[in-house]
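User: Fold this, then the next.

Assistant: Folding the first:
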Amino acid sequence: MIQTDNLKCPICSSSFTLGNNSKSMICSRGHNFDMAKQGYVNFCGGSMGKLYEDKELFRARRNIYEAGFFRGVEEAVSGSLKELLNKEGSVIAEAGCGEGSLLSFLQRENPGHSYIGLDISKSAVKMAAQQNGQISWLVADVCKIPLKDGSIDCLIDMLTPANYGEFQRILKPGGYIIKIIPNDGYLTELRQRLGKKAYEDKEVDKFFSRHFALICQKQIKYTFVCEPSVQEDIYVMTPMSGKADGNGSRDKVDSVTMDLSILIGRKEKK
């Protein structure tokens, strides 16, 4: 379900209207973007997102979500939305939404708002649109987000690279950003088996605070028991398993550590 109110043309920045039979989006200068039969719009086109078309990764991530691996994160972010957005009608977007599980959970738990999910992977967005037709799903690059200036009340960015310049642009004055980053213990069991180094503190929180007023930071840490049905998926769902270092291997892992920090920031009002 694509809503055009908050969208802008990535080519000329003008507004959109729906074309004939609501199967395309046309900007005021004539740039046309077709809507896929699944209900999403591809603003990248060409070969721009082909490097990110790992269908197995997104299939595995969907299974891991359904198994409850990210449940603690889902509940924490959902609770934060309830605290931050005290009225209905807010616009919530997720940059790097993947196959849409997190945003779909938030939409179910926090109805009454508009939701927009964007990711550079067409495969991921197609999966998301097939699962949930109540969200505006966009194939888009965070370097050029097709959303109007100051159109978003809350932006979510989980375990994906940030573009703080674009994030600042699309957030309303006083709007919120929720960023989820890995801590040292995140997936430490997999990293050991794959011969990967532990996550290092790259001062992401300090960099975040240079762009937004940090109003809250909290850690989410728990152990997830890997049932047989997700033994392989727990490896496939993370890009780091694509190539193991040294003698790394995909040995059976009975449990893995979830260790993340949630940073909540606010765009300053001018």
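Now the next one, as you asked:
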Amino acid sequence: MERLRVRCTIPFAADDRAMLAAVDPRLAIVFGGPDTADAVAAIEDAEAEVLLSSWSPPDRAGMPRLRLLMTTNAGLDSLYALDPWSLGIVVTNGSGLHAVHIGEYVLWATLSAFGRTRARLAEQSAHRWPMGDARFPFAGRRLRGRTAAIVGYGSIGRECARLLDAFGMRVLALKADPASRVDHGWREPGTGDPEGRIPERLVGPDGLADIVAAADVVVLTAPLTPRTRHLVDARVLGLMRPDAWLVNVGRGGLVDEAALIDALADERIGGAVLDVASEEPLPAASPLWSQPGAVLTPHVSAIGDFDMLLHQAALLFAEQLRRQLAGEPLLNVTSRAAGY
């Protein structure tokens, strides 16, 4: 292969830029941002064949030879309108990059819910120290022996499973193709469940009702696609146990928000930890703000420790570039039709 020209808008540190440039002497990488849709649309580089970015150009005018887009995004919904697939561009995503951050967020959310953290903090704020039997409403429930249903068994769902399994929870999981248990995507060493051995049951979409009904916590890690929009609707919420919690780290559109508000208002479920919303930022008038069973965070589960996240992305891109130059299959190749 001749020299491969790469454009990169991801703000990598100097050491990571040097590491990427050193992958192969045939690489010619041009670094420079910002990493925005407008900036990517304005790039004019007749020789660029690969783009490392969070965005795709709207057409081939600026980069007529572009054939490969490597993005750090796990979800692809932000790229649907640009539709690089229709331009003949292969798109790889950042599956695996966010798994550790989000897995630890889900563990925090589960521990917080089972430990009745909000009620405990309310007592502290009121300067109250309950005594005797009055302490019981603030005693936590243990995780060991309880059941987690993970809806979406990709890299993030597998890391959630690994952490919850380590706490002794029984794991049930849903995957679009449950017959394919192995994870062939990128992951940090020692993370996830690459062989798919943790779930006691691994079901397809038709098994959603069964695993939700059996769960103490339902974790949503699925991508948002036309098939998964409002996957958790009033019917599914009605199947949850009255003390079960919902944790959504996927996309807000996975849940029928109006039905969730009703379920929380009527205390038909234990509560919900939501890092995503159907509209972001969540409007000030949304009833979700005032639901006592709702814990809201502003889509932060994937972005903690940002420098480390960028370093992991550099490691992923280095492996991808090595594979591209060696003619080996790429990791994390996506399909617009599938949505991931």
